[in-house]
Structures are given as structure tokens and as C-alpha cells.
């Protein structure tokens, strides 16, 4: 055995991602939750989003008096889990598309960029339509944890609306727009190419049909709506809740801050200055609006965290405004403000 | 002059909704606290099963029943209030308490309570989810409309609590000289364990609690083993 002690023993475990993976790792969706199991040779165990794999062979269970009951309960639970998984998957897709829209848009889009945004919106539209059947009635809130995409979508749509109109989209307008998106998505599934119905522009949100408040009114009208739908063969729709709106707008403030930063750097002017209301004022107005609102119960931690981030965005834009005022026109184009410097006279935490 | 960024009417609208939501939660918390107290009392009475021979069950079970009656009254108030709002918006607030209430009903029935003229109570009876719904006078596993109801998860979690209680009773019934009951409990728990194994569980609270059923099985198997070693198994139940 001499001489063998000098060598480190060769590792027995296969390295992740090496030799003979049956498929390369797919990072294109930026999906951080796309882990899949591998067997001990490093080969993926992948089901390709196909039908639920057969339950692992269990030790043969002797049937007893309670077996039928458990079989029934099992089927119900399986249906619920399947629905949740389906929704989660589509939600991730919608989130990705919404993020892309946010990154792409700006005021005065050139036509080809606008076309890109429109096609992403059309894609979202179709995806919403696929979700709608699974989130009707009682299921709408049941699966809210699988519907985080609606916050992202709210952020994208409120941001687009702001860039176009310099106003804050209202919750009724947002939910009407998303409902319309869903409806159009269902319709476009039925017709191959529908050139007659243009996709609604992200910035142009239609007026709400009525100032309908969500929660209780919606629930009582569900039965009514279902009847109308069936008689007209209207597609099933879904929409945003007030919580989706709140958290979307919290995130909107961050986008506005980023927009203020880049537009100031590019143009040397505070965004919105020509219209007498600058983005600094808008951020102030938005920030104070949320500071004045009572905190949402049942969600305190999340609300406080988001509020805190919003405050920081407001501070950053304030800084931009100040710098613009102080330096005025002496600053060349392309100058980037230094956001790491302390606020004047501020001893922050 | 450009219009303001935010519609002035929006603030009051959102503020009102947030305040309404807070007030709903406060009211719910009050009702749930009351249900909690009803449940605690009933659970307290049920602890006496570990020291009460079966011959004395009728008196004990009727005491349990009076506790359950209070639970049912409070649950009805909860159901009426909660049904005004989306079920899944607030259900996490009462889930645990409701589970415990269901467990008291299940245990009461298993010990021979919950009898009616058409169906007298008997030891070993497991109420189904539907039967539990009838007791509480609420729907179960509701899908076609949005209202208060009992869910499958609540039923199963309650059942697991009952299993844990019964495994303890198996031991104590031997002490009380009731080996027949111990054997019946053992068979019941093992049957249920088989049932739970059929579920396709995800990594949630249900899976964690289902694991505890395994320990209950072991406990009752130990009890039955001890009994069989000493030939204490009643003849007609010998397996």
C-alpha cells in the first residue's frame, strides 16, 4: 500500500453539470427556482413539464374501511396542488415579461421598441387568459401567493402610465385594464391572428366600467357575472386586487427614481420640468401619500419594508433635484450624479 | 398648470378600504378569541378520558357535549361574519382554532358521543368531513362559491390531533383495565396511518404533522405487544 497515501483519493461524486447531463441547464428565463433533481451520476431527473409523474411505488397498502375516504381526499388535494403549480409557472413567465417591459420603456418610444413592448403585452395577455379559469371565485384569493406576477405587472403598467401622462394610475383603472388584457388574451387564442383588435397601449388605460370596489361587491356579483358570461360566451377574466396595486406602486417609486437618475444624466434636466411639475415633486407627492395612509393590517412587516425603500427613493430624487438646482447649467451633459455622497447636513444611520 | 399626479379622491378611497380591512380583522379576532376559549374548555374536559373508565363515559361525554355546543354557537357567528368577505383573505386567522374545535368533535364522536335517534353513538366511529360539516352546520370543501367552510386540510390536521390523543389513551386504558379499548385504538390508528400514506403530500404543514402519525403507530404497537406478551389481549380481538 506504500505510495498510495500520497495521492488524494479521487472524488466519487460527479460534479454538478459535468459529463452527460441529459439537458444543459436552462438559465434563459432567469428563473432562480428552476432547480431540478439529479441522480447520483449527475444526470437530470426531468419530467419536461409533462403530466404528473406516477406516484412513487409505495409498499402495497392493505385496503381498510377508510381507504375510499383517503382516496377521495387525495384526489382533491392533488387537484389543488396541480392548480397551484400551474399558476406558479405562468406567474413566473408574466413576472419575467413585466420586468422586461419596465426595462424597455421610456417616454417617446421609437416605433420598433413600442412594437416590442406591445408584443410582450400581448404575450402577457395570453398568459393571463390561461390563468383565469384557475382563479375564479373563491380561488382568486386561494392562490394569491402564486400570483405575485400581478404586482410586477402593476408596477409595469403604472410606470408606463406615468411616463405617458405623468399621473398615477388608479386601482380601478389598473384592474379594468388587466381584466381587459385577460379578455383580449382569451379572444386571441380563439382567433389565429386578430388584426382588428389592436393591443391596448400600456400607457392608455381604458376608463373603468364602473367605480367597482373589490372584495365584497365583486363576490356578490360573481354569480351575476357568470350568468352574463355564459349567455354571451364571454371569456373568463381575472384582475388585480388592491394589494397588487399597493405593492406595485411601492415598486413604481423605485422605477421612478431610476428613471429620474438616468433621464437627468442624459438630458441634464429634471424630468417633467417643462410641464411645471418635476419628478421631484411627483416623488414627494407619492411619498407623502403613502406616509399618510394607515398601514395595512395583517401585512405590517412587508408594508414597512416597502415604505422604507420608497423613502430612500424619495431621498435620492431629492438629491438629484438639489444638485440640479445648485449646479444648474454649469454641468455638462452625461454627468452622473453621485448618489453615494451623504445628504448635505444629514447624519443618516 | 399640469394636473396633480394623484387624483385627490384616491386618498380617501384607499384610506377607507384600509380602515375597513383593519376593522374586519379586529372583529374577527374577537370572535376567534371566544372560540378559542370554548375550545380550551372542551379540550380540558376531554383530558379526563385518560382517567375515566368507559362505564362512566355517558356523564363525561355529555359534559363534553355542552362544551361542544358553545363551540358550535361561536362557529356559527364566525361563519356568518366571515362569509361576507373572501374566504382565503382571512382564513389563516381562525385555521388553528377551528382545527382544534373539529378535533374535539371527532374525539367526542369516536368515544361514542354525537349520537342521534337514527344513528346512536358508538366507540370507534370516525366522522367524515361531510358529517363534521353537518355538526358545525357549515359547508365543507367549498368550491362553487366564496363562503366560510371547513377545508380538507383542517379536517386532516384535526384527525392527526385525535390520533395523538388516542395513542395516549391506548396506554391509559390499559392502566384502567380496558385492554379491549387499547386494541381497538391500535387497529384504528394503524388503519388511519395506511390512509395517510396514500396522500401525495407536499412540503407543508400537513406533511410534517402526518409524520407524527408514525410515532403514534409505534406507541400503540408497543402497547399491544406488551399486552400480547402477557396474554392480556382479549380473546375475541386477538389478531
Summarize the entry for a quick read.
The complex is a heterodimer of chains A (349) and B (239). With 349 residues, chain A is mainly α.
Characterise this structure.
Chain B: GO terms for molecular function: RNA binding; sequence-specific DNA binding; single-stranded DNA binding. Chain B: One of its GO terms (cellular component) is nucleus. The complex is a heterodimer of chains A (about 350) and B (about 240). In chain A, about 55% of the residues lie in helices and about 0% in strands. The N and C termini of chain A lie far apart (about 65 Å). Chain A has a domain at about 65-145 and about 185-190: Methane Monooxygenase Hydroxylase, Chain G, domain 1 (Up-down Bundle). Chain A has about 350 residues and is mostly helical. Chain A is built from nine helices and no strands. Chain B has two domains: about 10-150, Translin, domain 1 (Methane Monooxygenase Hydroxylase, Chain G, domain 1, Up-down Bundle); about 155-240, Methane Monooxygenase Hydroxylase, Chain G, domain 1 (Up-down Bundle). Chain B has helices spanning about 10-45, 55-80, 85-110, 130-135, 150-175, 180-195, 205-230. The model of chain B has no long low-confidence stretch (mean pLDDT about 95). Chains A and B meet through helix 1, helix 3, helix 6 and helix 8 of A and helix 1, helix 3, helix 5 and helix 6 of B.
